[in-house]
Amino acid sequence: xxxxxxxxxxxxxxxxxxxxxxxxxxxxxxxxxxxxxxxxxxxxxxxxxxxxxxxxxxxxxxxxxxxxxxxxxxxxxxxxxxxxxxxxxxxxxxxxxxxxxxxxxxxxxxxxxxxxxxxxxxxxxxxxxxxxxxxxxxxxx
Length: 141
Description:
By secondary structure, the chain is mostly helical. It folds into two domains: 2-82, Hypothetical Protein Yqey, Chain: A, domain1; 91-139. 74% of the residues lie in helices and 0% in strands. It contains seven helices and no strands. The chain has helices spanning 2-14, 18-35, 42-62, 69-82, 91-105, 112-123, 129-139. The protein is globular and about 55 Å long.
């Protein structure tokens, strides 16, 4: 994924796609900083991108005027970043996974963290942890 980001950054630069170039520059820079500390894995890159998505979502939420150029740019940035994230699992699919896990292992309300830990490993970066928490609570009795 790192190579893809580098390659597409160069393409965006050559094609004068300023928004894509800037978005990928931020990601590339954060990857480079992390590479100084450790070997960067794909999941590290996904974490970086997810963090940027979260920041852009905050920006979008704070803009009142939806016709504002900043709003339009933030939406484009979000679309670009989402191209680099794994496809998200549907809420129905995750609910089914939680339900099966809870029923098979006969987990109770006291086992929340056991279920959460196992589900985080199953869904990896493909589902929001806050939503996952709500679904787990729904199925634990």
